[in-house]
Amino acid sequence: MDPSHFQHLRQLLMEEGRLMNERGQTARRAEIKASGDFHLMLASMTGNAVMQRFMDELVARSSLVIALYGQSAISSCGHQEHQDIVTAIERGDLDRACHLMVHHIDHIEADLDMRENKGSDLREAFKL
After folding, report:
1. Higher-scoring residue by pLDDT: 94, 116
2. Domains along the sequence of the chain with CATH
3. What pLDDT, on a 0 to 100 scale, did the predictor assign at position 94?
4. What is the structure's pLDDT at 20?
5. Own/partner pairs, 114-119, CB within 8 angstroms, 24+ separation
6. Are the C-beta atoms of residues 19 and 77 closer than 8 Å to each other?
């Protein structure tokens, strides 16, 4: 990756951070999109077509889940985590970048865990 890649990632992060401070559904949708754009840009910078296709699918699905079921105040994707990952890659600290990415994935997975029964289950919902 060259300096222009990092500049572009930093611009995406600035936009994501700006949107986090706005309120309302329009801002929330824009924040989710900005977070997705960050992931897609990072994947495209790898030059790995398989990774890019995987991230396209993952971002499309996870963005929908976050918009529908995530907490209304956050996109379920840590803005500071994004910044830390970019910084680690920029410094060439790939071990740290990998550690941060795994932590990031674990964090998102925990935020979107729908297994906890917060209401009635499907059988109960259809009982007359």
Report:
1. 94
2. 3-113 (1.20.120)
3. 93
4. 79
5. 114/69
6. no
d(CA 58, CA 12) in angstroms, rounded, equals 19
Residue with tokens 């918009």: 67
Q: Hey, what are 74's tokens?
A: 């956050």
60-95: pLDDT as tens digits: 988 887 777 765 555 556 788 999 999 999 999 999
Report how far residue 109's alpha carbon sits from residue 71's, in angstroms, rounded to the nearest whole number: 13
Q: Are 45 and 38 in contact (CB under 8 A)?
A: no
- Ramachandran bin of 24, using left for φ above 0, alpha for ψ from -120 to 50, beta for the remaining angles: left
Euclidean distance between CA atoms 112 and 66, whole angstroms: 7
CB 89 within 8 A of CB 1: yes
Q: How far is CA 57 from CA 54, 61, 103, 105, 121, in A?
A: 5, 6, 21, 15, 28
